[in-house]
Amino acid sequence: MKKRLLAYIALLGTLVFSQCRQLDLEPKGIMGEPELFGTEYGVKMYFTGLYNWLPIEDFQYYANDGYRRNDWATEKNSQGAMSGEYFNTWISVDNDGFGYWPYDRIREVNNFIQSFPNYKDKFPDETFNKLLGEAHFLRAYFYFGMAKRYGGVPIVTEVQNPLAGPEVLNVSRNTEYDTWKFIHDDLQFAIDNMSDDTKETGRANKYVAAALMSRAMLYAGSVAKYTESLGFKATELATQQGLAGMEPSQANEFFEYAVAAGKVVETGPFSLYNKHADKATNFASLFLDASSPETIFVKEYNRNSPRGNALQHNYDALMSPAPDMSSFVGAESFVPLDFMELYDMPAYTNPDGTPVRFDNRGDIREGMEPRARGTMYLDGDELRGKTFSIQRGIYRTFDGVATDIQRGVNSAPINSNGNRILGGKGWTTEINGVTYTITGAHGNFEDQGGENNAFGSAFIRKYINPDMPTADVRDWRSDQSWVVFRLGEVYLNTAEALYELGQREEAFDYIAKIRERAGAKVVRPAIDMTMTNIGSINKANYTYSLEKSLQFIRDERQRELYAENHWWWDIRRWRTADQILNNFRQRLLSCYYVADEGKYIYLDEDNRFNRQWNASKSCYYEPIPWGEIGKNNNLLPQNPLY
Questions:
Q1: Which residues lie across from 496 on neighbouring strands?
Q2: Residues 21, 22, 23, CA angle at the centre, nearest 5°?
């Protein structure tokens, strides 16, 4: 065991160095078990490597290729692009995941949990319990990363002897219920034993454990409640054996755990971020302010560390338009109209179907929910000393209704002789002796191969650092931290769980808090239990409906958490992904100048490439990695539809 630990620490050398800022450690060289587990410093060092591998879906998470991806393109090929939350030209739904199977990390946690009691006399009881609780938090996080992908997985709590026979090593999968219950038990142990005063950035305390409990148990409750809607049980052995799916009668247990965890977080020193009078500025700032009272846990980045340590990222470079707001390739992902419409927006179409006329392009911002403006940049907004100028083209005249616009017309060739005139950046045209600029400086252009310019009327603002000099906005220069858990999410988790438990009025107490901070028009909508189709994103016909108030809570979640890597997991746990992403063609809001009126109009158009997103029912469970099954047949049966 000691030889293994020596090898482990040798491998951890660069990881410890890369994370020493977060945990206030300096590398001390090679250590054995007594030095690691017998001192608080040694335990911190041991945990550092484990924190570095937690399944945190941040800037460098590539939905189909894993965590910690050292690739400048990760941000554009993100989970948001994969699930249709962003418009991006490069990626669409992939149900196969990337084979996440972190039993090597779980072994390291189990090694600590198994051996640490041998050093109990080296620590005060409070410190010993805190560190042991932290280990259970780490193990629960790794299992959460698997449970939401695979359902039931093998629960391994002891360090296995690699020389043991297959009867020992070839463990079977536990049921999905038992897997989620194990995650709960580990997190409950962490909450009960960890202190509430640990303030080291990037390190957990009892409130961080409770925040993870809130998220994980809400996921489990949704899976249980909506499992039967998939219809797997009649045909799929994994579902029949409880490996992929749970009984609806088990849902409330997990919803109650989620509510209880949220109440624990509420006892902590957290409050919704409200430092700025301007609600849009306030919402944008909460993701950049290291002193935010809303933040519960972050993954910290540090530009001053070597690139190989993955402590910087490319978010600004790949979300800001070039060349005047970015010195790299320019913006790669944009907000579709489908998601813009979730917020309170000014009308851009009149009741008779004709487009609303605007005196200025930026007038579209007037009356828009402040949280929306804190989430996205629109025409007239400023970034790094430049003003966004977003225009699709020019109409010589426009006397039709908005619904007359042909879907997919964006893919037609440029026709400078027709009524509609499109062009590239800086192109001009002459109409009746007057020269007009066809497009704005930031989109949407027709002459650049469909990349690096706006595909619609909104750029992503959330997480963008406006104080970054434009010369620095390039690859591997951004270092704003990723907010892993925040109070706003926990409020939403609690609200949804309460609603599912039938405590609807209390659920909307939490929604009211979120909307009040957001500056939304309606602070508290009435409870409406009539049924509606789940059509807030994709305007299609669905096979089942949902209570309007529950749909409102789900939509509120998307408004608040847009671009934070929750959407894909939400539509998976609700078991609605195969319907929402059913020939889903993102719509884009396009601005045109009407030359003979001197006015601007906004039109609802299909995305330029007529791209569509599709998810099948196989997306709800990823396949157990076939390579692992090749080593251990006891992992069968495989998950549904594989």
A1: none
A2: 95
Cβ partners under 8 Å of residue 381, min gap 6: 362, 365, 373, 387, 388, 461
What is the predicted pLDDT for the residue at 18?
A: 39
Furthest C-alpha separation in the chain: 90
Copy the structure tokens of residue 400: 């039709």
More confident residue, 190 or 475: 190
What 3-state class would DSSP assign to 541?
A: coil
Phi, psi angles (nearest 5°) of residue 589: -90, 120
Q: Which two tokens stand for residue 539?
A: 């305007």
Q: Report pLDDT digits (tens) over 511-537.
A: 999 999 999 987 677 788 999 888 889
Look-up of token digits 């709590």:
157
pLDDT at 479: 93
pLDDT at 28 (0 to 100) = 45
- Residues 168, 159 contacting (CB under 8 angstroms): no
Of the candidates 92, 88, 564, 93, the residue with the CA atom closest to the CA atom of residue 329: 88
Torsional class of 24: left (φ above 0), alpha (ψ -120 to 50), beta (otherwise) = left
Question: Mean pLDDT in the chain?
Answer: 88
CA dihedral 230→234→237→243, nearest 10 degrees, is 40
Radius of gyration of the chain (CA): 26
The amino acid occupying position 377 is Y
What is the per-residue pLDDT for 61? 84
Instruction: Kindly report the number of other CB atoms within 10 A of residue 503's CB atom.
Output: 15
Show the tokens assigned to 617: 């029912």
Please tell me the least confidently modeled range out of 232-236, 393-397, 417-421. Answer: 417-421
Reduce the secondary structure of 298-360 to three states and give it as a string: EECCCCCCCHHHCCCECHHHHHCCCCCCCCCCCCCCECCHHHHCCCCCCCCECCCCCECCECC
**Amino acid residing at 290:** A
User: Residue 405, SS3?
Assistant: coil
Report residue 69's pLDDT band, with 50, 70 and 90 as the boundaries.
low
How does DSSP classify residue 87?
A: B
Task: For strands 587-594 and 393-395, give the pairing.
Answer: parallel
pLDDT per position as a tens digit, 159-169: 999 888 888 89
Q: In this structure, what are the phi and psi dihedrals at residue 483, rounded to the nearest 5 degrees?
A: -80, 105
